[in-house]
Amino acid sequence: MNLSFHIVVCAGIVPDPLQTLEPVIGDSGPALKNEMLLPAVLDPWAAHALYEAAHLARGHAGSKVWLVSLSPRAKLQQVMMTVAQKAPFELVALDGPAGGFTDSAEVAGALAAAIEAIPGLDRSRLLLFGGWESAARGAGTTLAMVGERLGIFDQFQGVDELRVEPDGSLRILERVEGGRHQISRCAGPPAVLGWATGSLAEPPNQPQLGMQNMRTILPALQRAQSVALPAAELRFVRVALPSQQRQTRIVRDVAAEEVAREIVDWIRG
Amino acid sequence: MEQVLLLLTTGENGSIGKAEREAVTATRNLVCALGGSVWTVGLIGGTISPAAEQLAGCGAAGFVGVEGKEFAVSRYASDAAAAEALCRAIGAGLVLAPGSSRLMRALGGVAQRLGARIDTHVVGLRVQDGAIQADRWYYRQRIEATLTRAHRPWILALDPGSFPPWDGAPGTASVKRVPLELGPEAQRTDVVGLQAVDTGEQTIRPEAELLFVAGAGWTKKQPDGKTHVEEAAHLILEFVRKTKASLGSSKSLVDLAGEGQAVLPFLTHLHQVGQTGATPRHPKGLATCCHGEEPHVVGWRFIGERRAINLDANCGWARGKADVLYVADAFEVLRAALRLLEGNEHR
Amino acid sequence: MSEPELTRPVMETDIVCAGFGPAAGGFLTTLARRLADPSKPPIESRAMPGLPLQVVCYERADDIGFGVSGAVTRARAIRESFPDLDPAAIPMAAAVSREKLVYLLDPIGASRRPAALRLADRLIRALGSVLGLEHEALELAWLPAFLKKEDGLVLSIAQFNQWVGQQLLMTGAVQIWPGTPVADIVVENGTVAGVRLMDQGVDRHGKPAAGYQPGMEVRAALTVAADGPVGAVGRRLDAAFGTPEGFDNREWAIGMKFVIELAGQAELETGTVIHTIGYPEPEIFGFLYVHPERIASVGIFVPSWFDNPARTAYRYLQHYIRHPYLWRYLEGGRLRSWGAKSIRESGRRGEPKLAGNGYARIGEGSASTNVLTNSGVDEAWATGVMLAEAVIELLEQGKPFTRENLEASYVARRRASWVEKEARMAEHARDGFHRGFLSGLAGVALAGLTRGRLRLPGRPRKPAPSLEEYFRGRIPPEEIARIRAECARQNRPLHDALMERAGWPPIPLDGRLLVSHQDALLVGGKVQAPPGVADHVVFLYPYLCEECGMRICVEICSGEAIQPRADGPPVFEREKCVHCGACVWNCPRENVLLEAGAGGLHSAEN
Q: Does B197 contact A144 at a Cβ distance shorter than 8 Å?
């Protein structure tokens, strides 16, 4: 059976996870202090989704991958210099805020419109990929909303594995409570898959791939439409770093047996 | 006055679990603070009467439900349709739900269908000057925000572990069934079953009293200049088994495993806490051989009592973040602890 | 049966550039403008006929904003490239508003000061009120003209590089690829024919492993080495083509700095530049630059002629910021990021061959840094511009990139430039430091004031003394032996124990500004440890390490990435490495090889 997919990966960018973040409230709501200075990466879960998409496309001739991102253009351009070397894709860029303080409904509206406008996209073969959560905002409600807007009613979140069966059905493993996976079988595309980490390692940089991708990335960045995300009804009362300073009692120069006894007593206590 | 709906899904026997009972407490408290609002419990499941009876005394004005074998499974299409039908049936302006994997999958789409707005990872709710304020996390649990919305419907998914579970007496309750026919487009997915990860029981288990976090230090060279990965694996697994602890890992240790190095092969990304991993909630946490700054340590933000074992007195996991830091060799301490726990088993 | 060998992919380009820093910035900016200029005839690719000239730049770091080189610059060449430059367009950039030179006394008494300096210190203290001694420091009324940066810019080089990179990419005329180390050069018949990128899917020793992917050969008519003071491409060129007669590249310094968010009460105007001398050791120079939005860069230079074999820049930097003159500004601040880099201080004496068949060198690796004016960024940028002008000239004339053609165009431009003129003035400026701090200062002053005509004798460099020699009279040899044994038992470096024994107080860590060295690795940075690449720090002959009693590499390592081991060479941890290269030039036996490597710590604000 000849199976091919049109895979659209929705991926925002976020400050590198190791950055120390500090929120500030400005005129247009909360933001991160110096956000434009911080090194950015593709949202980690969405990056896994991209690697899975590339892997799937490689295994099914005739498949194609698009990466749709709503991010500040200058930062996205920088992130693309690395991401473009990882997997073949065509970029669809929207120039707008990537911070988590935007409203998922507004973001979903912009992304869905951009996906609908992709020329040649075959909606019957569409697999909409993304992260199940976003490193900025938390639970992936955006992806579900985009799926609904595109009329996709088979949705999966926390996906760790996708297998295409010989009959064209999709066998999907989702993370559920208790460290287990739920196994589902979906008749086929279209479907929404919000990825957890999957099982693929980050691909090595492939310079030739980067050069090939860049031919579409630069024009996509140049024509990226600016997107305003009004959320007048959403009001932030406060954003703050949690205070979590504890008075740490430091125990040193004590025999291991003594430490072990104290710990075991504490656990039992 | 708000029209409040609490959405719950039932388990195999038609009853509800801890996360659902926590959501009951949150809803009761919120409705009480709102004054004059009424709330309804909306149940989705294969069987729903046991849950209604379980919640008979919770104070809800009524129970509505969508029931049937196609609603027994955790599946987007059926769950979203059921949740949408229940919201519409009572004209809910405010929808609360536990942040279970099942409802988290469905609620985003439900919000889209209802023209609602949605916030997830909600850990606190209050009413201030007549407006509902929700506390939630941003940037992987590193920034706390309090927000309020004028838009209705407003869906709020509550983080498990954030509210005490409601524990009232059961009784009798009647449920108004909302009829719902699923079209063929909602039945393209079959749920085949559940599968435990290869690592067996040694993953993050929400109900455990203790979270044991293993850091990359376990695989580093020890004072004799060699690594002792096999012993580390043995000590960690035995300790976790004997203390019935949940096992977590730092990102760096999990990443090492991803590099194909022979290090603690039983650890996967499912164990990872902090950064892109989990931020589990347990009453106690013990971090061993972990090192790192604030972003890593996010992983145990919601751990009650925290202790750490590390050779470095300036360990980022401990300074200002743990209650006690033992500057000690974790190998030696765990060996001794296992002997103590062994003695206890034989006693 | 052995696995079939994977063939190395090959790509044809016209110009390949290794490293993206200020030099490559100047080169690519100038070149891209010409290529994208619609009023000029297009320059067609020879490698890929029908396409425009193919120009590719590879940067080893994960982003293009990496590097901690001098954050204050006169920006003469940069302003020439960007005549309408508005500092506000570049994050963390500001015009220099005021500049001071400050002599710091030793408030602790642990600094190893020569007798003459101790005497001078006593005099200064005695005359304190007359001289204006405050906060254990003397603000010098006069700043020599050669040091002045008053018309310049305070920059974060990382942010500046990112800004330049953004401008470049949007031209579409050149490509810049971060995360792509250049491992080697391709030499054919005495001509550089391109570069070879790093192999991936290999073990720590570079042997093929799972997912082996040989590094691509990128062929080019011109290879530009812009990979900095310790770059692998530069070293490969030296190895392949030799160095000029009299080449001497033994003068170095490690520059380490903190980027600090200042506390509310600190009164420091944006654009303030403070240079310091005298503390924490007389040989260590320091600086404080104030960026917009209450961010400051504070750092020190630990030179190769400072002979403490247990020198640690990190610990010294912590003592430096706690000097009362600086601490009054910095107390209560927060560490935002941290970094270190080597500075090639040999000046013209360390100039390699600037060009040959198919290659040219620009930037710090071409010895452009001026040690007299303490300036490197502007000079590096200028060398890049000069090469681009030469390349454009040759391309327009249809001439090949031969040694003769590059010498007549690029090298000739270098020789006629202000970079060269000032390098000649600086050539012997620091020789005096080999005889001591005061003669060193005198030498700098003499060279600066006479524009290089007069100098003090001072060379050659002495080998580093043993610990026992260095601490003679301060720590008895048996005490050193005890500390050495104790540290060896705990597998940790010696420097903290020795410094504390020598009178340096412990650092009161506060978790905000004063953090442990290990924690600093995780502040404001991005730690990369990509799988499947070889270690980039290699100890060539294990027996040499075993014989070495000094282990300076362990002590100097800016990221604590080199750790001692009881038997055999030290242990290298790739993810902690900041690629500063200090291990290379500090090794007394030249037994450390620094290859182009991926990963390590990366700060976007340095």
A: no
